[in-house]
């Protein structure tokens, strides 16, 4: 039997050698039989690997971007550049020498362009970005290039200002506390999540688009109770054995250190900052998650998308004088539960980012405010938005106090609109941005005439969570529409 196995293996080696010698040193053979797997995921490429001078060449951009690098191209000089973290790569088409962080690296064969894509020797992938590259010879028809990032301990600074050593890229993570899991989802980290809080299962998916988009998260093991002001369950976290614990709101600096010491697992604190919706701390948290899970490029893309959206919103209305803006108000906002029309906010983020004239801002307060009805009557806003999470309470109140509502100009003129609730386990940034574009469309129709609010909402959901979710949200709450407070 051993003799037969030896003969079989010898025959396979002989066939492989014959195959290699049939490959010309100049003529490339399209390697339809070569698959590429990066970090456990099969890579889809518009140009397949090739065999050249007995070397396997693979598409640089596809693999580098899958490894989290950002790739650039200078067509005039035929120069490819790539950057990931502190690594900087530069190579010229047709040249056997590349630069890595300024040091020369020799390629087995020069980089070449095939069908508009740059292909490089397989070994260069390993040397350039420190990835582990394996060549798995053909089974019956397919050979496989397996590329895995080497995990290294890296020191990062979390949002509590702590220096934390974490394995990068982290393969298994948990995200606990209000909003932590949502941010991981935005950075395409769902496949790395190995456990969720109990509240993510008990609450269902309504109002939390990240769970709507990824309902499979609710099938994962429980890592603790979850919920505002809950205490992390160190024992359950240890039982899951994640590489990293992301946490938002539940711990301060000292408590994070204590949880890390108790679990012997790196704890990285995230934050939504003071504003919660468009805060710089959100951007820092997204970049940090991307760095730790090996999705740096995605983290940067999400931050750039949010910043670009915010700039777009502000630019549309920046030149409108204050006296030409209608007075606006939002009521029914949730704050640790549902509330009626008296529940509002000063410096309400969706209004701030379209430069709207929020009547509540005259109070000088920021954040949640409960106002007197008399004050609302004295303000008498031109337009009122009702958070649909509190709409049923507003309608019940209308039945009891119709005269109060009928005294408001916005009600008399039919300028009352519904908006989707976005504060559920802290800020659903996707829905908040969708609401802002809708508010802009209502308040400043000329400046937002190119916007279809439902389509814009789906663009935002699709970019951040990979799926259009407006119809699902509208089914749950009502969506963007004019309201008749007398109906149910």
Q: Architecture of the largest domain, CATH level 2?
A: 3-Layer(aba) Sandwich
| CATH superfamily grouping of the largest domain | Nitrogenase molybdenum iron protein domain
Question: Any idea how many domains?
Answer: 3
Overall body shape:
elongated
| SS summary, helix count | 18
Specify Rg, calculated over alpha carbons: 28 Å
In CATH, what is the class of the largest domain? Answer: Alpha Beta
What is the fold-level CATH name, i.e. the topology of the largest domain? Answer: Rossmann fold
Uncertain stretches: 1-32
The description of the largest β-sheet is:
5 strands, antiparallel
Number of β-strand runs: 26
Strand arrangement within the widest β-sheet reads 1-4-5-12-11
Strand content: 15-25%
Mean pLDDT: 88
Distance between the termini: 80 Å
Structural class, from helix and strand content?
alpha+beta
Measured as a percent range, the helix fraction is 25-40%
Architecture blueprint of SSEs:
Blueprint: H1 2-22, E1 29-30, E2 34-38, E3 41-42, E4 50-52, E5 55-59, H2 60-66, E6 70-74, E7 79-84, E8 87-92, E9 97-100, E10 103-106, E11 112-114, E12 117-121, H3 122-129, E13 131-136, E14 143-149, E15 152-157, E16 163-168, E17 173-176, H4 180-186, H5 198-202, H6 209-213, H7 234-240, E18 244-248, H8 253-263, E19 267-270, H9 280-293, H10 296-317, E20 327-331, E21 343-346, H11 349-352, E22 357-358, E23 367-370, H12 373-379, E24 383-387, H13 391-400, H14 402-406, H15 409-412, E25 416-419, H16 429-443, H17 453-465, H18 470-477, E26 481-482
